[in-house]
Write a structure and sequence with these properties.
Number of domains: 1
Structural class: mainly alpha
Shape: globular
Number of helices: 11
Strand content: under 5%
Radius of gyration: 19 Å
Distance between the termini: 22 Å
Helix content: over 70%
Order of helices and strands: HHHHHHHHHHH
Length: about 280
């Protein structure tokens, strides 16, 4: 249970760091760049990836797609936190788990039980209620949380494709994906510098280190939690998603004074219900 709790704390901490970084003159692209640099170092030390296991049959196209999508969706995540806060962004990210479920149904003709269909309906209703704002309130850009929702859903599908390829250890594949993501963000950073759109500052390194540390910690403790609960993986699945929504809501409301309507709270409750229904299928 300790690993699960640490994973939840690490996941929410990433959003908190991005929220705090807005108070300073930081560069989001550079933060994401340093994040993948440090995540690459941490994974090399902790996982000791076996790159000799790579061969021509490895899913390199999937690795490449993830290497591009991860930093792009990370930037969507930052923009979403800036626009609508930690509470709604965390909820949108966690509800993205329904995207691979829908893909299994629509693309691979997986048979759905009535309970799973109800879970999907409740989940999408939750997303609607979480993101809805009264017409009289200050407008916010909802495209970012929707991009977070869709983006992390696609990323989840791609990671599942990597998981079924057992010829290469999952942690080695993860290291390879981090390396591609770092390469992609390196190109973006130097392109920005060449266009004089970005200036370097040590605070970007600091925030990048913190994001990389907690981002990697989230992955590490999630994997350890799955090993600890090998007989009941649904415990980790439900605990992680529900825990992030609950802790993220508490931090957003109490620490950052994010305002939520009654409909938003109803949406958070529906999100928890949908995850429970999905786990109990």
């Amino acid at each position: 249970m300790l690993y699960l709790l640490l994973g939840i704390i690490c996941s929410v901490s990433v959003g908190v760091i991005f929220k705090i970084s807005r108070r300073y003159d930081t560069n989001n692209v550079q933060i994401v760049w340093f994040n993948y640099l440090f995540a690459l170092v941490f994974s090399a030390v902790a996982f000791k990836p076996n790159l000799t296991a790579m061969d021509t049959s490895a899913p390199f196209l999937v690795y490449a797609a993830l290497g591009v999508l991860l930093p792009v969706v990370f930037l969507f995540l930052i923009s979403s936190i800036a626009n609508i806060g930690i509470v709604k962004t965390d909820a949108a990210q966690r509800l993205s788990l329904f995207i691979p479920i829908l893909a299994a149904w629509m693309l691979f003709n997986e048979t759905f039980s009535t309970q799973k269909i109800v879970a999907l309906v409740v989940g999408f209703a939750a997303l609607f209620f979480i993101l809805i704002k009264p017409s009289a309130s200050k407008s916010s850009n909802l495209k970012y949380p929707f991009l977070v929702f869709i983006g992390f859903g696609i990323i989840d599908i791609l990671f599942k494709k990597i998981a079924v390829y057992t010829a290469v250890p999952y942690t080695t594949s993860l290291f390879f994906v981090f390396a591609i993501a770092f390469l992609v963000t390196t190109i973006a950073v130097f392109y920005g510098k060449s266009k004089k759109m970005q200036t370097y500052h040590p605070r970007n390194v600091l925030f990048g280190f913190l994001v990389g540390l907690f981002n990697f910690g989230n992955i590490l403790f999630y994997l350890k939690a799955h090993k600890a609960f090998a007989a009941t993986p649904s415990t980790v699945f439900a605990g992680m998603n529900m825990g992030v929504i609950i802790l993220g809501s508490l931090v957003g409301v109490l620490a950052f004074k994010e305002s939520l309507t009654k409909l938003n709270y109803a949406g958070l409750l529906l999100a928890l219900v949908s995850i429970v229904l999905l786990v109990l299928v």
